[in-house]
Design goal:
The protein has 108 residues and is mostly helical. It has four helices and two strands, in the order ααββαα. The chain starts with 9 loop residues before the first helix and ends in a 22-residue tail after the last helix.
């Protein structure tokens, strides 16, 4: 993988405008929120928190590992299928294309 794939603009992080590159959708990353809720659901499925009733795999995995794995998988899938193709969050819409919402940076 090339280093350009992981390029991010730190100046835009402090650029206070609703259309900023890392604003996703109204300032929220829907893929991350859905992944968080999926991980929370997995945690509740493995360990019921009120009565502390564990599921069968809890003894070997705890509740954290399955919830983290599911949240990772959901976030990765949604990012690849929705976030990246739509160019949300500062991702480029195609190879080599610059996001028009990013301002030109001064060369120092």
């Amino acid at each position: 993988m090339s280093a350009a794939l992981f390029h991010y603009n730190t100046w835009v992080l402090h650029y206070a405008a609703p259309e900023r590159a890392y604003g996703f959708v109204a300032g929220f990353n829907p893929a991350a929120i859905i992944a968080l809720l999926a991980g929370f659901g997995a945690y509740l499925a493995v360990l019921e928190p009120v009565r502390q009733t564990p599921a069968a795999g809890f003894r070997h995995l705890s509740a954290t590992l399955p919830s983290m794995a599911l949240a990772f998988a959901v976030h990765l899938a949604l990012s690849r299928m929705v976030t990246i193709p739509r160019g949300l969050g500062g991702y480029r819409r195609g190879p080599g294309k610059r996001d028009a919402s990013l301002p030109e940076l001064p060369i120092i």
